[in-house]
Design a protein that fits this description.
single chain, mainly alpha, 4 helices, 56% helix, 103 residues, 2 domains
Length: 103
């Protein structure tokens, strides 16, 4: 853990906002952020399944739905991300190479 940003007397110290907004990584701010994330996930998990956006990466990743529609959306999105990553790497590699003109 690190020392509190702006000192331990800051009014936001020890809150989730201290972690997210002020980038403080001290113990109390980290603990508050973890508790806030757990509370958010618990509230989201309590939603009725009709409110989950089925067939989307959002449903799979954020709502932890594992129905066939959400699993397929996750697979498709994973393929798309891998393909984009390959394209990005290939573009960076060709960008670094010098072109030689033939005459």
């Amino acid at each position: 853990m690190s020392e509190p940003v702006d000192g331990p007397d800051a009014p936001w110290h020890g809150t989730a906002g201290g972690y997210t907004n002020h980038k403080c990584r001290c113990g109390p701010c980290t603990t508050a952020h973890s508790a806030d994330c757990a509370r958010y996930a618990q509230n989201r998990a309590a939603l009725p399944t009709t409110e989950i956006p089925h067939g989307t990466e959002n449903g799979y990743g954020n709502y932890r739905c594992r129905c066939e529609l959400c699993r397929e959306a996750h697979r498709v999105d994973g393929r798309r991300r891998r393909e984009l990553r390959k394209q990005r790497v290939a573009a960076q590699q060709t960008k670094g190479k010098k072109r030689v003109r033939s005459e």
